[in-house]
Amino acid sequence: MGNDQNATHAIQTALINFDDKHKKFIIEEALEKFKELSNCMNGLCLIKKVIVACAKFPDLMPKLMSKMVEHSMELAQNPYGNYAIQVALETFSTEECRPLLGSFKGKYAQLSMLKFSSNAVEKCIEKADLQLRNEIITEIISSDKFLSTLRPSLIVLMKNSYGNYVIQKVLSIAEGEMKVSVGVAIQDSICHLTDKKLKAKWAQILNKSS
Q1: Which of 9, 98, 19 is nearest to 53 (CA)?
Q2: What's the CA gap between 51 and 68, in Å, rounded?
Q3: pLDDT recorded at residue 147
Q4: What is the DSSP string of 68-79?
Q5: Does the predicted TM-score (pTM) go above 0.85?
Q6: Angle in degrees, 0-180, between the axes of helices 81-91 and 61-70, rounded to the nearest 10
Q7: Rounded-to-integer distance, Cα 49 and Cα 29, Å
Q8: CB distance 161 to 123 below 8 Å
Q9: Cβ density class 108-138: b for 16+ within 10 Å, e for less
Q10: How many CB atoms sit inside 10 A of residue 98's CB?
Q11: pLDDT digits over 32-91, tens only?
Q12: Which of 3, 29, 83, 141 suits 171 as a labelling partner, its CA being 20 to 30 A distant?
């Protein structure tokens, strides 16, 4: 029902106007089909409201987060599902989002390369506390190998249409010693870029950030 355009509008209206008892019933039903609803346009409209509504019902948070963590990789790479992740990161505290942030561990560099999940990665970097953010950044810039290539992941990401924005986000949000480390890593990687325009672009970005 949540996948149907007219039905989803009716359910969203009910979610706003019904009393708490009936709101919880709607949320629980939506959570049962969380992945399916999140990964389609009409369903996402409902899921976004469900996620926000869950903030008022702490007892439903564990189930919501469990669903998000279970399907996090698929959601992150989906044109609609990635927005469900972003809404959750915007709605809940860092501590509440910790399981979701942790579900991408070891995959941050890979997800940074893809159109939809790169947006989710940027949100994760913004949401994480200092310690976790530094762990994510370290993972992204320090991977020795990326997929089947023999090049360090940072160089691959700097050249990638989506990954380059993730690296720019990393550079803008990193603090203290981590910011210095990121700058050094980018500077070292620039030397290995063969495209002159790309070299000039990254040199300019690095110069502006210092």
Answers
A1: 19
A2: 10
A3: 47
A4: HHHTHHHHHHST
A5: yes
A6: 140
A7: 13
A8: no
A9: bbbbbbbebbbbbbbbbbebbeeebbbebbe
A10: 16
A11: 999 999 999 989 999 999 999 999 899 999 999 999 999 999 999 999 999 999 999 999
A12: 83
Q: Which of 48, 39, 40 is CA-nearest to residue 11?
A: 48
With a CB cutoff of 8 Å and minimum separation 6, the contacts of 28 are 60, 63
Q: Two tokens at 76?
A: 């992150």
Give pLDDT, residue 143: 62
DSSP H helical ranges for 19-174: 20-32, 34-38, 41-54, 61-70, 72-77, 81-91, 94-102, 108-112, 117-127, 130-142, 153-159, 163-173
DSSP annotation of 18: S
CA distance 161 to 164: 6
CA Rg value for the chain: 19
CA 106 to chain centroid, in Å, comes to: 14
